[in-house]
Amino acid sequence: MLPNAVSIASIDDVCSMFSSVPYLAPRSEEYSATWTAVDLLPPPPAGCSCSPAVSAQAKFSLIDQATGEPEPSHVRGTTGSQEFTAKGFGFAKFIKRAWLDKSTCFKDDCFTIRCDVVVYKQIKHSVEERRVQSPSSSGVVVVPPSNLNSQIGDLLASKETADVTFQVGGEVFAAHRCILAARSPVFKAELFISEMKESRDTTVIRVDDMEAKVFGDLLCFIYTDMLPNNVPRMTRQEEVAMAQHLLVAADRYNLDRLKLICEEKLCKLMDVSCVATILTLAEQHNCHGLKKACFQFLGSPWTLNNAMATEGFEHLERSCTSVFKELFSKVSAL
After folding, report:
1. Of 62, 64, 40, nearest to 51 (Cα)?
2. How far apart are CA 327 and CA 325, in angstroms?
3. Residues 101, 109: Cα–Cα separation, whole Å
4. pTM passes above 0.85
5. Which residues belong to any copy of the BTB domain (predicted)?
């Protein structure tokens, strides 16, 4: 039995940036009796107490020992690539111990977690390789990577030349009409085309039915085409809720790429406790891929029976009758 907070180093040093793959028991007494956590930590270089930032993707999969395949309800990972630092990456509530004890993933007092890591190495060129060769010039011309998203993001952070203010849940956000209109047809209509005098003439616009944190992340995506990466670690339930709220906001403002990012994240976070609410959301906001993923997840009798015991399933039956019937039609055909 692995003691609390003791790591297991990977045997095969397939990537020097991640030669240590620790699986940790719960980090606090709050979770110790209920949950098992999992973390991926890059080891510090020799002679250094800190780890360099590494751009990578990571995925944890709990293996079903009866089939040798990943258990669909316990596959979690990053959404695209992200910067890994000494803090690492992981989930505070990865496996519920009561569930694990009764599952086929736990056998002979052992369970297996597979960790898949994809590291994006930065290609460095020498000055000679970057030299622009021409008969008339021997100068060195180096073209740096684009930092347009960073520059526009700085504009949002500095609030310079901002010409519109949004009030959301007690917080105030300064923004730029032209950038919002260029990125979102809904903002364009509200800020420039709409005949609503409030939207065109006032410098303070109130946004209802949205949390301030969600609107802040929405603005970050509009300005940088990325979600903020300096967010504090959240529980699985908090991650699901945030992805759901962002999906609704993305649909509201016609931000298709952000909507797909949220769909992808919900597919990875899906489990029996939230699949019904995710399916309801997918139906209400025309997320066809997410809806298909929910149907696939609910394809096994065990998963379906456990999902039916949740409040979300009762809400699905009341609010989306057609989807409820479609689900059971597909399940009965299996």
Report:
1. 40
2. 5
3. 9
4. no
5. 162-231
Side chain identity, residue 277: T
The DSSP annotation for 178-232 comes to: HHHHHH-HHHHIIIII---HHHHH-SEEEE-SS-HHHHHHHHHHHHHSS--S-PP
Looking at residues 97-110, what average pLDDT do you find? 81
Mean pLDDT along residues 178-203 = 79
- H or E segment to which residue 308 belongs: helix 301-308
Query: Rg (Cα) of the chain, in Å, rounded?
Result: 24
Into which CATH architecture does domain 234-334 fall? Alpha Horseshoe (1.25)
Domain boundaries, the chain: 16-119, 147-231, 234-334
CATH superfamily of 147-231: Potassium Channel Kv1.1; Chain A (3.30.710.10)
CATH value of 16-119 in 2.60.210.10, 1.10.150.120, 3.20.20.30, 3.40.50.150: 2.60.210.10
pLDDT greater than 50 at residue 16: no
